[in-house]
């Protein structure tokens, strides 16, 4: 009972009592807040020991995953007690982060200095032509990782038992330090040299099993090269046919933050399968941990199977416990027809009736989701209220699940109730949990022939220069591609485009119109584009249909998938044709929220949508691609 808690107020009260028992008279003010999967300690204490104990005691409560210690010490001076881990900690994990007691604001490196994210030297800044230059830049939060230690591990799945109807199979999932001949080693990330242990939660989905029983749902890797595996017992369905596939979907999570996924077929690896399993080659194993990153309150993974079905896996943190489950749905056409109809119909909806029509769209999406998911979300609303952050990790390039409207009294569309963002499940780099910052480059074409003029786009560029210190760049294809190829000469925090765009096949004709020619997906999804890997740049494409997705050669295509594949920080873009003046209003809300108000990506889009959602259908078009919790450093 001492470590149980059902709400944040109860948790704070119990922590205060425990802390005062140890440090009588030294707790001046204590507050606890929940941000996604992270508890934030705030207030004032009178000693460093008291501050350190507050964090340690908090980590002892049930299902407390991560703690960020922002307590202020205001009293007589003592030696610091915690060093690195006062700033942020997950149970058994020492994060890679700056000194906890420092208020230092990190600035962007000058062009002739190397950046820790760079893969090659930057080119001369003269290769990017600007129409005007502002000295102001977004604050940069680049932190030093000179002492970081890269951790390499091999994923390993071992099975014991008979894979036959009604039988029990035991499965161990491990991340081993020794090299595996059949599985290449992967980098889990970089950590401080004194790291000791990293716990990684494992969630399984096995449609051929009637029960999945977790004996231990966590893989813990240790600095001494050993590990503690996760172990499960699965009861094989009586309907299972020997010789067919027995596929496992394995999700890895650091807190609630999805950090990896792999697909594994037990029969094919044992040489028993008679047909190729779904996703066996499509999803390569990938695990990447950002120890200092906060996770969302709810993570939803969506895996598209070859037969048109979707596997949903979700994890949520509620006070005192973690909830997770899974389910499947069947989509006859994979959702492509649904997405196409949205692109064609939504822009023409009249201002008087679009809200009613979109409610119908949203309820259709809600009713399509797995039944267990609907029940889980309803319970989460009861326990957490609204406004908690949601992250989609989705293999589905077509359906904007963010638009679902739960059939609950007083509840609006998901992305009008919550901060929400999406990221591809496969063929994507790991999500960036932070936008390091840098210049805001704005490309606004001056259309002279053929294309309709966009007066609000011009006003948008001028507003960004006047209010956020944007650098106005000449909107030619060569200039834009030079920026993408890393030739600007300084870190780029935000790359902004306002103009015409279109979506057709998702890769060949999907593009944005520069002054001289279009920039297509094929121009961007190639190895010369290094801006994302250098700077984790957030891309803002305020152009029609740039959030739409498609599939090509078994992979997601479109701007969202391309931005993820090329290692950018994220993308803000609309799904369909939007009104020029509403596009301006969205950007005027989103970007200041990000760079001046320290909102995360999901919060910034949520605020903008809410302001315009009763005015124009265009507000429903904007989606966030990236980590829902990602922020720019405080300015």
Summarize this, please?
The chain is α+β, with helices and mostly antiparallel strands.
Describe the structure.
There is one protein chain. The protein has 635 residues and is α+β, with helices and mostly antiparallel strands. 22% of the residues lie in helices and 29% in strands. The strands form seven sheets. Strands 12-11-9-14-15-16 form a six-stranded antiparallel sheet. Helix 2 links the parallel strand 2 (38-45) and strand 3. Helix 1 crosses helix 2 (48-59). It is globular.
Protein topology:
Elements: H1 8-22, E1 27-35, E2 38-45, H2 48-59, E3 66-69, E4 72-73, E5 89-90, E6 149-161, E7 168-176, E8 186-191, E9 197-205, E10 209-216, E11 218-222, E12 227-228, E13 230-236, E14 247-254, E15 257-265, H3 266-269, E16 286-287, E17 298-304, E18 309-318, E19 321-330, H4 336-345, H5 354-368, H6 371-384, E20 390-394, H7 414-417, E21 420-424, E22 439-443, H8 455-468, E23 471-473, H9 477-484, E24 492-498, E25 501-502, E26 511-513, E27 518-520, H10 521-524, H11 531-535, E28 538-542, E29 549-552, E30 555-558, H12 559-565, E31 570-574, H13 580-595, H14 601-612, E32 622-626
Parallel strand pairs: 2-3, 2-4, 17-20, 20-21, 22-23, 22-24, 24-28, 28-31
Antiparallel strand pairs: 1-2, 3-5, 6-7, 6-8, 7-13, 9-11, 9-14, 10-13, 11-12, 14-15, 15-16, 17-18, 18-19, 25-26, 26-27, 29-30, 31-32
Helix pairs in contact: 1-2, 8-13, 13-14
């Amino acid at each position: 009972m001492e470590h149980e808690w059902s709400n944040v107020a109860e948790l704070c009260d119990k922590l205060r009592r425990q802390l005062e028992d140890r440090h009588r008279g030294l707790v001046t003010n204590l507050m606890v807040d929940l941000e996604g999967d992270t508890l934030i300690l705030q207030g004032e204490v009178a000693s460093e020991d008291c501050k350190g104990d507050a964090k340690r005691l908090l980590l002892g409560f049930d299902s407390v995953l991560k703690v960020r210690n922002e307590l202020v010490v205001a009293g007589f001076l003592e030696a610091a007690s915690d060093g690195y881990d006062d700033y942020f900690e997950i149970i058994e994990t020492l994060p890679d982060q700056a000194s906890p007691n420092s208020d230092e604001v990190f600035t962007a490196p000058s062009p002739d200095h190397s950046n820790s994210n760079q893969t090659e030297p930057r080119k001369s800044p003269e290769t990017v032509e600007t129409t005007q230059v502002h000295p102001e830049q977004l604050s940069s939060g680049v932190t030093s990782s000179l002492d970081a230690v890269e951790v390499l591990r091999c994923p390993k799945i071992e099975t014991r038992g008979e894979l036959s109807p009604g039988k029990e199979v035991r499965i161990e999932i491990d991340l081993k330090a020794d090299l595996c001949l059949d599985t290449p080693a992967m980098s889990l990330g970089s950590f401080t040299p004194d790291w000791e242990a990293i716990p990684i939660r494992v969630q399984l989905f096995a449609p051929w099993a009637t029960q999945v029983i977790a004996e231990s749902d966590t893989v813990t890797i240790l600095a001494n090269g050993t590990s503690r595996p996760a172990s499960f017992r699965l009861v094989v369905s009586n309907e299972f046919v020997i010789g067919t596939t027995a596929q496992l979907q394995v999700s890895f999570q650091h807190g609630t933050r999805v950090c990896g996924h792999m697909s594994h077929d037990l029969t094919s690896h044992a040489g028993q399968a008679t047909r190729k399993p779904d996703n066996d080659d499509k999803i390569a194993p990938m695990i990447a941990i950002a120890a200092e990153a906060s996770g969302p309150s709810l993570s939803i993974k969506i895996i598209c199977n070859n037969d048109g079905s979707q596997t949903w896996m979700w994890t949520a943190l509620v006070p005192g416990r973690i909830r997770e489950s899974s389910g499947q749905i069947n989509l006859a056409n994979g959702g492509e027809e649904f997405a196409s109809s949205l692109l064609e119909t939504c822009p023409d909806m009249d201002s008087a009736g679009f809200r009613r029509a979109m409610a119908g769209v949203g309820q259709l999406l809600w009713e399509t989701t797995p039944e267990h998911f609907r029940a889980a979300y309803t319970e989460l609303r009861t326990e957490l209220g609204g406004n908690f952050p949601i992250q989609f990790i989705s293999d589905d390039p077509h359906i904007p699940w963010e638009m679902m409207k739960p059939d609950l009294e007083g509840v609006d569309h998901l992305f009008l109730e919550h901060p929400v963002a999406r990221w591809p499940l496969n063929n994507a780099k790991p999500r960036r949990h932070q936008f390091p910052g840098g210049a805001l480059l704005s490309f606004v074409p001056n259309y002279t022939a053929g294309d309709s003029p966009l007066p609000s786009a011009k006003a948008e560029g001028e507003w960004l220069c006047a209010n956020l210190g944007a650098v106005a760049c000449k909107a030619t294809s060569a200039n834009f591609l030079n920026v993408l190829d890393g030739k600007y000469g300084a870190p780029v925090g935000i790359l902004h485009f306002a103009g015409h765009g279109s979506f057709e096949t998702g890769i060949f004709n999907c593009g944005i119109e520069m002054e001289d020619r279009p920039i297509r997906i094929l121009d961007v999804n190639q190895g010369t584009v290094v801006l994302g890997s250098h700077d984790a740049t957030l891309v803002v494409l305020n152009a029609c249909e740039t959030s739409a997705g498609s599939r090509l050669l078994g992979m997601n295509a479109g701007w969202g998938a391309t931005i993820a594949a090329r290692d950018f920080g994220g993308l803000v873009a609309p799904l369909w044709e939007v009104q020029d003046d509403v596009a301006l209003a969205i950007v005027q809300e989103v970007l200041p929220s990000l760079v001046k108000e320290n909102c995360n990506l999901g919060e910034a889009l949520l605020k903008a949508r809410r302001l315009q959602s009763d005015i124009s259908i265009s507000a429903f078009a904007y989606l966030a691609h990236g980590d829902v919790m990602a922020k720019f450093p405080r300015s």
